[in-house]
Amino acid sequence: MSAISSVVAGSPQLGGAKSEVQCGLVGGGCYQNFVNGAVIWSSASGAAVSLNGPIRSAWLASGAQNGALGYPKAAQVCGIRDNGCYQSFQNGEVFWSTASGAAISKAGVIRTAYRGAGAENGALGFPIGPETCGLKADGCFQAFQQGEIIWSSTSGARISKAGPIRTAYRASGAENGALGYPTSSEICGLRLSGCYQAFQRGEILYTTNTGAQISRAGLIRTAYRASGAENGVLGYPTGKETCGLKDGGCYQSFQKGEMAWSPATGAQIIYTSPIRTAYRAANAENGRLGYPLTSQACGLRDSGCTQTFQGGEIYWSSATGAIISRKGRIRDLYLSSGAQDGRLSYPITAEICGLRDGGCYQGFQRGEIYWSPTTGARTSTTGSIRTAYRNAKSENGILGYPLTHEICGLRDAGCYQSYQNGEIMWSPKTGAKITATGPIRTAYRKAGAENGTLGYPTTNQTCPTTTRCTQTFQRGTLTWTSTTGVKRT
Description:
about 500 residues; four-stranded antiparallel beta sheet
């Protein structure tokens, strides 16, 4: 056959003939064997040399012209990268290098992607195994020196380049795991020289500082992307999404905070900040605060910040630090009084319970809130009345818990506050004085209190004995004895 003869004439490397031309192959093809190979011809492919060696062995092992590759289309070409060789066939190629051995690159979407990536000269290098199909959702993959190409009908053919992202992907179960098939190649040049790759159900993001971390499709990832992803306030993820938390919740940590999610609260950001430190110290979602309901909000009075949780809030200012305002009657009163914008300003202590009669209190920049089961929650604002109350040992003293807030606008610009066992009355001229529950206070109130003839008290009530007490007012003195009762002088 002239076509075979002309190829033989130009191919001295074949050596001597070992057979005559034989025909009757698939598609009407013919061949002739030589010491160092064969020449094979078909009308569709023409005549081509198949030299003995790894490439021909791989072709023969694949079924030769009857297999997936069909007939050779050209002679073997050597001198490519790493002193490798390749040969083209009707339905693909066979590549060989000393490091990779001979491997088939079958015609199709994976081979197209491989050639589009520069074939052996690209990031993947030489193939190291055949294309393998039968994966999940009828997918296919092929391994290369520096990665893989993975294909499915829904995701297309995508490169999974050797490196931290591919390692994390394989550790997650690859196409059988939570991420599914890749939907993009690895993309680098992100902030902080980062890289990412998109998958059917999420992404993997990588930097040298954070490593490769999965951002799984879901509400946490949605919120993360809405916040600007790696370019936003959170930066890159530093851990994977972890679920199985209280109430079916999940969280994921990032360079500058974390994202917490529960079915009841949705996904909320907790920035790295004193508020987050206080939240974690309070046992995070397992503590009394539960899950966050909002992200941290700043720009408050005195450049403060706050974040709301299921069980309360955390307030922060540079003067007070981060303090918890726990859900309950004290917090309700604090919020209704204007919170940080009200008279009390920011909290300076957490709510403290275990006080007398089962009471609680919380300290603020400009006062306190006291609560007991019998009195409810009442404010004790910074000023002379509060000072007098504290000097009288607060709830542990003769007055007990406050019954009212401080009330001003009295005669002569005075103020007062009622307690379980008395009152404290104040005016600019007299200062803050206690009128304790008892006969003297009863008589004083009957006389019109500060609006009556006595005016404001100028001293606290004193009782030198158990049978005698006295208290001085602006315009008189009331004295009580067990024998005479209350007398005015």
